[in-house]
């Protein structure tokens, strides 16, 4: 679905569910193990793969962590990590290209969500490799299976460690939580961790990358922000609409025939919502929906989803971007792409929407020291 109002209606329709058991092709055994998107649907039970009472039981304890008050309490940590990363970047010699995605956009949200769930800092680079592989929808079937098994094992070990020795982290808190009187099973814990750590960093990584790219490609818009005529909040919201961090999200499955205008979604059919297309829907955002405009009169967008499965980490992602972007451009006012915009390469994924890398120059190359005038020989 690519239209805002239709998508919003369907995202609220209880006849479209996340339980893969309602997918006709899955029930009939027509989805082969080699299907490239299997890693996006064949997942342990979590808040993104369940509905109704089960979904509520798994989602509610996590959602309490991302209330406005709890997110604001995380701001000092977000600022601390941001400025530490910028201090490291300040050591890069002028004129030296760096990958801003790897050096800034990734370690910031990964550091925050890793701290929350008790994932050791030294494991973050490995998790980045695994999630890059998971979201790579051009990966071969062997890689998909290996990635899933490695992720399951990683979080299984983390759950076992936290059960044996609880810490001051959300993983330990969820293990001790009895949602509606029923504790999380190990399988539910693994599914929850895989989902929350993925969503808790990937969305913000893409939001920061996409915002930096958009601002550098539209210097007039960046000038408005720097002059204080437009807020960084407006930049974040326009980026979310114009270049959403997620292209498409997990399928939903029809439990009965659903009429959508002149189309009927048949019972057992799968539906994919195209968040990237929805943000450019001219019928909702106006005839200039394809234009990046931070002065645009804001209209509600669906880039974090809608309805019962609306992303619970949306407030955290927004806050991280609102901290990171102004700090980055204040520290490096001459920030520029190291290559032409046309040379940037997208992430090979139909799920996440970002770039593989974001090569930038933090500062222009240092000017050469003037050569001292040599005295002319006499005679």
List the helices and strands and how they pair.
Elements (H helix, E strand, L loop, with lengths): L3 H8 L4 E2 L6 H4 L10 H4 L10 H12 L4 H6 L1 H15 L7 E3 H6 L1 H11 L6 H12 L5 H24 L5 H6 L2 E2 L2 E2 L2 H32 L1 H8 L5 H11 L9 E3 L3 E3 L2 E3 L4 E2 L3 H4 L3 H4 L28 H18 L4 E2 L21 E3 L18
Antiparallel strand pairs: 1-5, 2-10, 3-4, 5-8, 6-7, 9-10
Query: What is the highest CATH level, the class of the domain at 31-245 and 313-361?
Result: Mainly Alpha
CATH evolutionary superfamily of the domain at 31-245 and 313-361: Cytochrome P450
Q: Which stretches are poorly predicted, pLDDT < 50 over at least 5 residues?
A: 367-379
* Strand elements, count: 10
For the termini, the CA-CA separation is 87 Å
The count of helical stretches stands at: 17
Describe this entry's structure for a reader.
- Belongs to the cytochrome P450 family.
- It comes from Allostreptomyces psammosilenae.
- This is Cytochrome P450.
- Helix content is 49%, strand content 7%.
- It has a domain at 31-245 and 313-361: Cytochrome p450.
- It is mostly helical.
- Helix 6 (75-89) packs parallel to helix 17.
- It is globular.
- It has a three-stranded antiparallel β-sheet with strand order 1-5-8, with no helix packed on it. Strands 2-10-9 form a three-stranded antiparallel β-sheet.
- The protein contains 17 helices and ten strands.
Short description:
InterPro entries: Cyt_P450, Cyt_P450_B, Cyt_P450_CS, Cyt_P450_sf. With 379 residues, this protein is mainly alpha-helical.
């Amino acid at each position: 679905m690519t239209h805002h109002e239709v998508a919003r209606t369907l995202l609220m329709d209880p006849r479209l569910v996340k339980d893969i058991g309602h997918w006709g092709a899955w029930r009939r055994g027509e989805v082969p193990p080699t299907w490239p998107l299997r890693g996006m649907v064949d997942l342990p039970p979590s808040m993104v793969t369940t509905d109704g009472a089960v979904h509520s039981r798994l989602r509610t304890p996590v959602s309490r962590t991302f209330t406005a008050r709890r997110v604001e309490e995380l701001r000092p940590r977000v600022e601390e990590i941001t400025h530490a990363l910028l201090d490291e970047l300040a050591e890069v010699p002028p004129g030296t290209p760096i990958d801003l995605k790897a050096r800034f956009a990734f370690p910031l949200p990964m550091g925050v969500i890793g701290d929350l769930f008790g994932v050791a800092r030294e494991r973050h680079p490995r998790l980045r490799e695994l999630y890059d592989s998971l979201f790579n929808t051009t990966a071969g079937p062997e890689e998909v299976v290996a990635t899933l098994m490695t992720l399951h094992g990683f979080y299984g070990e983390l759950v076992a460690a936290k059960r044996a020795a609880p810490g001051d982290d959300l993983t330990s808190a969820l293990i001790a939580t009895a949602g509606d009187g029923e504790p999380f099973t190990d399988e539910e814990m693994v599914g929850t961790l895989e989902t929350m750590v993925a969503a808790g960093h990937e969305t913000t990584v893409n939001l920061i990358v996409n915002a930096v790219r958009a601002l550098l490609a539209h210097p007039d818009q960046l000038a408005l922000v720097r002059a204080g005529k437009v807020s960084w909040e407006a930049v974040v919201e326009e980026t979310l609409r114009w270049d959403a961090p997620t292209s498409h999200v997990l399928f939903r499955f029809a439990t009965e025939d659903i009429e959508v205008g002149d189309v009927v979604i048949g019972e057992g059919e799968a539906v994919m919502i195209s968040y990237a297309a929805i943000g450019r829907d001219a019928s909702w955002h106006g005839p200039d929906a394809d234009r990046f405009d931070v002065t645009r009169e804001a209209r509600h967008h669906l880039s974090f989803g809608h309805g019962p499965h609306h992303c619970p980490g949306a407030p955290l992602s927004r806050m991280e971007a609102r901290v990171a972007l102004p700090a980055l451009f204040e520290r490096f006012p001459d920030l520029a792409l190291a290559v032409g915009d046309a040379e940037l390469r997208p992430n090979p994924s139909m799920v996440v929407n970002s770039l593989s890398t974001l090569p930038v120059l933090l500062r222009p190359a240092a000017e050469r020291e003037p050569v001292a005038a040599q005295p002319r020989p006499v005679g």
